[in-house]
Amino acid sequence: METLLNIDESLFKAINIGLSSGFLDNTLIPLRHKLFWVPVYLFLLLFIYSNFNKSKWLIFISLGLSVGLSDFTSSNLIKNSIQRERPCHIEHLNAVARIPCSNGFSFTSSHATNHFAISAFLFMLFPFWDYRWLLFFWAGIIGFAQIYVGVHYPSDILAGSILGNIIGWMSFQFYCWMYNMYYNQKNLENVI
User: Fold this and answer.
1) pTM
2) What pLDDT digit, counting tens, does each position of 48-101 carry?
3) What is the DSSP letter of 78?
4) How far is Cα 192 from Cα 190, in angstroms, rounded to an integer?
5) Domains in the chain, ordered, with CATH?
6) What is the per-residue DSSP string for 107-120?
7) What angle do the packed helices 134-148 and 2-16 form, to 10 degrees?
8) Which CA distances in Å does 30 have to 44, 105, 154, 162, 183?
9) Quick one: which of 34, 25, 11, 23 has its CA closest to 149?
10) 83 in the Ramachandran plot: left (φ > 0), alpha (ψ -120 to 50) or beta?
């Protein structure tokens, strides 16, 4: 276990300290902030509202469930159980804190959990979009930025991404089940 923690700290230092640059500061600090993505969230909601006539409200409920469950699980259940201190509070790491260091706990990253849950749900909802893999790239960049700014270890992001993908998948299964129950369809190819 100690070896894994040492690897985690080494990877953290390589990203947080080793990659320090003005360009990454100007790019990653805003990218990790939730308000930066409001136009994307609004576009996605409008796209779903406009293109999923029959099931749009069911999608909104399922997506809300995905975010709510991922945030509650990461922020309230896991963080409060594990109580891992953030790397920006650990003196021997000499972390570069590029944003104010929160007093909350580190493991798992709620940013990563929430964004991977959204990405997994939308990935399954949009089988017609050839570039849907970009959803995971988007969530990954947000997770990477959390390490870069000094508030999370790489393992926080990895665990958050796994948890988020599981919750996103579960939420999509809930959506499919509800869709079949309410619209009495067995074939989900015509969900739109």
Assistant:
1) 0.89
2) 999 998 899 999 999 999 999 999 999 999 999 999 999 988 888 878 888 888
3) I
4) 6
5) 2-190 (1.20.144)
6) SSPHHHHHHHHHHH
7) 90
8) 20, 21, 19, 24, 42
9) 25
10) left
